[in-house]
Queue: 3 jobs
Job 1
Amino acid sequence: MSSIRLFILSSFADFGPMHGHLLRSIAERMQVPLWTDISVGAVYGAMKRLASEELLEEQGREREGNRPTRQIYEITEEGRRVLARLRREGLSEVWFKPDPFDLALTRMDAKTQKMFPAIVAARLEAVRAMLAERKRKNAEYRAHVGPAKLWALRHGEYRLEAEVSYLSDLLKAAPGIAAEKRGGAK
């Protein structure tokens, strides 16, 4: 499942032919980084990949004033078929990616292990700050989005709240982890 493919193809299906700059503006206006893993700047490269896969096709070119010529793309029939599949997969597939933190937790050296309680406390504060910022931004957008986008925004809050809960519990266990004898793999 690719979030950026779903976003781009659905944008072309919803808004019609456009150039990359307009798609980027749509992504910025929709605040997609708040509720997806999409970087707004990545849309240009992804559009070109979708065109090379014949999911988008060049419809023409436009030039306004002394601006550079822009390629106008539209979604193909194959793009619409792929979009239908991506929409279903996006709702039905569960994405749970391992956090590199877990690997680092099991691979600490003695110096890091001694600092572990402070590291966890700092991480907890960073996640709490992220949660507070997410809630602040979500509160700004709540009045301007429909129910589906509201729940997409809220999903990020739930995930950060779960991380705060995990780190709070881990912080209680951190002194024992810091005191643990390190040896070979167990």
Note: The two ends are 35 Å apart (CA to CA).
Job 2
Amino acid sequence: MTNEIRTIFDRIAPVYDQLNDLLSLGQHRIWKEMTVKWSEAQVGDTALDLCCGSGDLSLRLARRVGAKGQVYGVDFSPAQLTIAKERSRSQYPAPPITWIEADVLDLPFEDSQFDAVTMGYGLRNVTDIYRSLKEIHRVLKAGAKAAILDFHRPSNPQTRTFQQWYMDHLVVPIASQMGLKKEYAYISPSLDRFPRGKEQVEIAYQVGFASATHYPIVNGMMGVLVLTKKS
């Protein structure tokens, strides 16, 4: 990860959840629940949430694995992790989450450690998608799944035009009012660079996953990549 991207996520941390609501038309909670479901995390599992941000997916995973389970929330942004820790402390009973500042391209975990992995809005921002998926593959147990949620450029021209209009006329102006125009202007070029679902599946197979399926959501403006490690 570059220092520039880390700085962006540190700066947007205080309004990250609010702007996620805006970016997703308020639907991101539903998509995160779908992502947790597709990870197939079970009660008592040890699960990993990468690029955890303010902790939303991590907290959902923690509810899924229960008090006998364990969740690790990983992010490279100290400001995001501070908010995640505060959210976690406000929960009762305290969720079984350990927060770790680390780079998803070089995870501080043993091989085959996790029963499930999730990532929300992170794969699009890593500097090396192949290496990131390789690390996910490494830390997953045999037969376990990863579910990766992110924004995408839709292939349909009309939907693509709507997405760009929405970004230009609603998201960026509101971010500008919050003093974050530069930080949120990066989203459009990041979408242009991000591989389409089919390409993500191809990379996943190159990494070594036994199965890989990309599920488009909201006319292709969102998607979940579901990966299974060989049993």
Note: The chain has a mean pLDDT of 89.
Job 3
Amino acid sequence: MKLTRRDLLKSAALLPFLTGDWRSLAAPPPLQAAAAPNVLIVLFDSFSACHASLYGYPRQTTPHLARFAERATVYHAHYAAGNFTNPGTASLLTGTYPWTHRSLQLFSPMLKAVAPHNLFAAFAEKSYHRLTYTHNLVALALLYQCIEDVDTFKKIRDLCLLDAQWADKLFFNDYDLAIWRERLFRGGEGLSTLPTSLFYFFANHAGWERKKARLNHIYREQFPRDLPRHHDQIFRLEEAVDWLTASLPDFPQPYLGYFHFSPPHDPYNTRREFVGMFDAGWTPAPKPPHFFTLGHSEESLQQLRREYDEYLAYVDAEFGRLYEFMAQAGLLDNTYLVLTSDHGEMFERGIWMHLTQTLYEPVVRIPLLIAKPGQRIREDVRTPTSAVDVMPSLLHATGQTIPTWCEGRLLPTFGDEPVDPDRSIFVVEAKANAKSAALTQATFAMVKGAYKLVHYRGYPGYENEFELYDVQQDPEELENLYTTQKDVAADLRHELVSKVDEVNRPYVRG
């Protein structure tokens, strides 16, 4: 039987499971180049750059990412626009800061006027085929706001072993509204369904728990801490990577793909070979508690950090499979491959996770690596950049118009303009603030050159607090310079406060 080129590509995706070594992948002939380059964005949720060995972290968490970096552009000071999924993802999808798109709270939608200004709509100029998928229900609600601009919307359950949602079955075109009604019904917690009765909810949840226990028993040898999950979606990252590698040759070209995978978001249920790999060796020094501490002990934070690092190593290995397949198949010759995240994760100062009022580096500095079509030599960029820069840069690179509403700039190496070392970029945390009101209870960070100024505004007991760090000389943010470098602090404070006043002006009455 004569095999076609497509058959060869699909067969290549299975070889890692047959041989246990993706380096042995046979390289099929490269596909004929499309008229315009493809764009593939791979986002891993809660991926902190501060935990990646690629960026200098002492534990070897990302060896495969380091291989990818040798033929990519590596951004070393790249910042999310927020510190959890809603503001971080919405800023990446719209190229605007949270004070513009207003996805400020958990499950909070973008403003209706902003939602049409999204990544997928922007890529319509050259007839890109636009595809998306996510494991994350929070990100899913945002993606549903873009549904009219997406050609292939792969449902969440397609790459899950078990899911418990009904909102997208019953209300596919109104998913964001349905999921909000469900949260109101249950007090903001629980499964993402829209049950018709309280009895149905408990019956459905009990059945889901039984199925979950059965799946965890089946996969116990492979995942001793239970299977990966996000909310009530249970999955294996391997299946998502398998589907992507098998499907890439079939995507209509040129394509824009946005794939938002849940790991390494908690719970940190890593694969067996990564369990315990960081139990010995380096341990970070404790940091003093913050006034927004959540009260976690140093011992518990260290254990959670080890488990997160083990989960990150699992993510790295699976991305390594995807990267190796694309490299061997010649798919990188006509594709921008982007790896990034929506926010980071935190294990210090008594604080765990990312749902915090603080904006320290582990929770807002995220990876950004972009392999340009045919790139063979590594480039390193150390100038601060923002998630809002990704959309305009990819549009420019593919010869499309950058919309006037986009608040980002071209990333260094994506344009001919000289890099501005004194550019200011911003991060916003405002989940306690009303959606359609001035930002009066929020945390703001402004990164400018070597400095990062953090402003806590309107919190009871901490109405007007500031912190200033030299994040180049003091990346651990141990020395608050706000009272010692008064001239620098005054200049940065004036700029940041003026910016906040500017964005608040449309919401101030009278």
Note: Residues 162-226 form one domain.
